């Protein structure tokens, strides 16, 4: 005879060992979350305070006296700041354009061709990333003196302003940006399937068409990424600009440095907040482009 | 004179120290489905790449449509390639991918549209024009790659393991479809594969390659039934290799294996009487008879006696492992044509017999 037994469904009390482990896990989660919050506060608290005090209705950058946009108004009316802002943008745009082309070509040469001295060239190409800015700045300064380029300026009218930008600053920015563009583009190139180019040439495309129709579009996300990086680094640069600018030329960071010597006012906070907003915008653009890239079906490096 | 679409004359390709392709001579007929078959690293892909123009031979000549190709780059050769991983342009739509070759040849817009439409219809992808490759399944990507090549109406289509990335069922379907497609368009196909079954199913002729050399060229039937060396016999299908000593070089060839004299229908060049050689016979060509059926066994032509060591039931047929002596075994495959009829049991003494025409004596070396 077979007895029909129902499966037991009684819930047994939690064991001591299990309870201990459960509490341990909960504590660990709590601790790690707290640590994460602290780390982010450490990174972003100064920035938040800087932005808040740019709206302070007082000269003080430590005591809150109410909300005001007066410092932004004052910043916009300060001709020196406006000129240095346009100087910064001009240098960034020109040096980014040049270094993006040269950096991309350098990356292609290093990745695609085998030639005598390639390894040495390869190592040297990335030197500007590694060597201290100050060393690079002094080397450039000496170079401009010896070569006779000096502090000759490029005079242009931009947004109703007369700018005179030393070639030396643009060349200096190009010099360090090439390396960064080359690194980013090369990473992209290394992951690119070479059979795509073979397929193009199999389909009657000559080297020129293969480059424009296949290689370049495939590299585009890398090139744009490199260009955005170069643009940010150029806007951001102080040391090299300071040493290669010669008398009377200010980019925004150099101008801020000059202002700080006369004491910190919320105007500096306002300028810094503006630069911060600019950088954030660039980051958002790059994120947006990469998302588009995903949908377009091209892999991200 | 017979017309060849592609000819290779004593083609050798070296990469530094490594010789990838060694002295290969091939003649591929117009409209033929020709396969290059061999294990990975045998030089089959390098051979294909040299025909396409991606590699230039170290020595020897390649002719396409009677024209010596020399150093012509890929875009100046009248061939198109279907790549192993398709190599579709990910930033272009299906339409743009297929139209690429025609655009490069400066075909006018209206004709491009018409021909792309036809090509997509040929591979059953009408309506997919505006998809990106990533939005397609593996099988569909494969079809785009085919359309992209065929739309150019090349003299010769080169296919580098095009079905390798597909799952088994899809691969089987595509094999048949590719074969039909080739019959439809009438273009010469040169097909690289390491899958012997695929090569047998699809090809008009097969070149079996190993270590950079072409070992044998022939129809699937010739390659399977009349292998000329151990590698070909071993690589295609299953075979028994039994080492023995050659006793008679004339027909019927006689070889002593496991102390018994058996006959074969073909002898490889260079093997002499008294030397060690290898008897090659396919498992399905051997017939088993009970040990008592002495006279009947010898009517088959030739027979060896042994004991059943193992039996494996496989549904359609049964595999027997027959022990001839301490070192020698024969695999025999017999169809299960009768219900519930178990042929032989382990330990039975049996005659393994075959028609000498099915057995071949090959050189002991590879």
How many domain regions of chain A? 1
Quaternary state of the chains: heterodimer
Portion in helices of chain A: over 70%
SS field, number of helical segments of chain B = 9
The CATH superfamily of chain A turns out to be: MetI-like
The portion of residues forming beta strands of chain B comes to 35-45%
Q: Reading side by side through the largest sheet of chain B, how are the strands ordered?
A: 6-7-8-3-9-10
Shape of chain B: elongated
CATH architecture of the largest domain in chain B: 3-Layer(aba) Sandwich
Number of strands of chain B: 21
| The number of domains of chain B | 2
CATH class of chain A: Mainly Alpha
Give a short overview:
The complex is a heterodimer of chains A (301) and B (366). Chain A is mostly helical.
Describe this structure as you would to a colleague.
The complex is a heterodimer of chains A (301) and B (366). With 301 residues, chain A is mainly alpha-helical. Chain A has one domain (72-296): MetI-like fold (Orthogonal Bundle). Chain A has helices spanning 16-53, 70-77, 79-112, 118-125, 127-130, 133-147, 167-190, 195-202, 207-236, 239-244, 252-260, 266-296; strands spanning 153-158, 161-166. The longest helix of chain A has 38 residues, at 16-53. Chain B has helices at residues 44-52, 94-104, 109-122, 138-150, 168-185, 196-202, 220-225, 230-235, 294-299; strands spanning 4-15, 18-29, 33-37, 59-64, 67-68, 79-82, 156-160, 188-193, 205-210, 213-218, 240-248, 253-257, 260-264, 266-267, 276-281, 287-290, 302-313, 317-323, 329-335, 349-354, 360-363. In chain B, α2 packs across α3 (109-122) and α2 (94-104) packs parallel to α4. Chain B is elongated, with a radius of gyration of 25 Å. Chain B starts with a strand and ends with a strand. The model of chain B has no long low-confidence stretch (mean pLDDT 91). Classes of the chains: A mainly alpha (301), B alpha+beta (366). At the A-B interface, α8 and α9 of A face β6 and α2 of B.
């Amino acid at each position: 005879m077979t007895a029909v037994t129902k499966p037991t469904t009684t819930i047994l009390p939690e064991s001591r060992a299990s309870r201990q482990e459960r509490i341990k896990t909960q504590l660990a989660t709590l601790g790690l979350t707290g640590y994460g919050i602290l780390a982010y506060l450490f990174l972003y608290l100064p920035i938040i305070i800087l932005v808040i005090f740019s709206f302070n209705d007082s000269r003080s950058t430590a005591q809150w006296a109410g909300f005001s946009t007066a410092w932004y108004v004052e910043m916009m009316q300060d001709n020196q700041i406006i000129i240095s802002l346009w100087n910064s943008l001009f240098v960034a745009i020109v040096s980014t354009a040049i270094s993006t082309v040269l950096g991309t070509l350098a990356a292609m040469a290093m990745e695609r061709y085998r030639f005598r001295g390639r390894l040495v060239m390869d190592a040297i190409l990335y030197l500007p990333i590694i060597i201290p800015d100050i060393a690079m700045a002094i080397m450039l300064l000496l170079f401009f003196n010896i070569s006779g380029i000096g502090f000759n300026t490029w005079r242009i009218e931009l947004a109703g302003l007369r700018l005179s930008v030393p070639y030396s600053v643009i060349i200096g920015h190009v010099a360090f940006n090439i390396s960064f563009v080359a690194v980013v583009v090369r990473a992209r190139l290394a992951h690119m399937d070479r059979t795509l180019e073979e397929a193009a040439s199999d389909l009657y495309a000559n080297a020129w068409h293969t480059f424009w129709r296949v290689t370049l579009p495939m590299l585009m996300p890398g090139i744009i990424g490199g260009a955005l990086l170069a643009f940010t680094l150029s806007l951001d640069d102080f040391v090299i600009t300071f040493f290669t600018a010669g008398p009377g030329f200010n980019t925004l960071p150099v101008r801020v440095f000059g202002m700080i010597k006369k004491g910190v006012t919320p105007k500096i906070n306002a300028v810094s907040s503006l630069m911060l907003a600019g950088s954030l915008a660039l980051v958002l653009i790059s994120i947006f482009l990469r998302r588009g890239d995903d949908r377009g079906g091209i892999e991200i490096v | 004179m017979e017309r060849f679409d592609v000819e290779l004359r004593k083609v050798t390709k070296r990469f530094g120290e490594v010789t990838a392709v060694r002295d290969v001579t091939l003649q591929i007929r117009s409209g033929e489905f020709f396969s290059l078959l061999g294990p990975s690293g045998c030089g089959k892909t390098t051979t294909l790449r040299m025909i396409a123009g991606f590699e230039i031979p170290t020595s020897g000549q390649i002719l396409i449509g009677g024209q010596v190709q020399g150093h012509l780059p890929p875009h100046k050769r009248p061939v198109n390639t279907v790549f192993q991983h398709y190599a579709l342009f990910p930033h272009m739509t299906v339409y743009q991918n297929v139209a690429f070759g025609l655009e490069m040849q400066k075909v006018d817009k209206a004709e491009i549209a018409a021909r792309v439409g036809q090509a997509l219809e040929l591979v059953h992808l009408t309506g997919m024009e505006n998809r990106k490759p990533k939005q397609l399944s593996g099988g569909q990507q494969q079809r785009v790659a085919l359309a992209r090549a065929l739309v150019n109406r090349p003299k010769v289509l080169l296919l580098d393991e095009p079905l390798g990335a597909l799952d088994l069922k899809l691969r089987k379907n595509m094999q048949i479809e590719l074969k039909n497609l080739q019959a439809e368009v009438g273009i010469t196909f040169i097909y690289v594969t390491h899958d012997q079954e695929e090569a047998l199913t699809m090809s008009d002729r097969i070149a079996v390659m190993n270590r950079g050399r072409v070992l044998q060229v022939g129809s699937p039937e010739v390659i399977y039934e009349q292998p000329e060396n151990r590698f070909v016999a071993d690589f295609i299908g299953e075979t028994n290799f039994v080492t023995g000593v050659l006793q008679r070089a004339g027909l019927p060839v006689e070889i002593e294996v496991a102390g018994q004299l058996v006959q074969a229908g073909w002898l490889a060049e260079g093997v002499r009487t008294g030397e060690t050689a290898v008897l090659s016979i396919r498992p399905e060509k051997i017939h088993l008879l009970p040990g008592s059926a002495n006279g009947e066994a010898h009517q088959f032509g030739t027979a060896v006696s042994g004991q059943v060591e193992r039996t494996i039931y496989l549904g359609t047929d049964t595999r027997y492992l027959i022990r001839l002596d301490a070192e020698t075994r024969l695999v025999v495959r017999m169809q299960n044509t009768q219900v519930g009829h178990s042929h032989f049991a382990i330990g039975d003494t049996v005659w393994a017999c075959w028609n000498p025409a099915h057995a071949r004596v090959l050189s002991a070396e590879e």
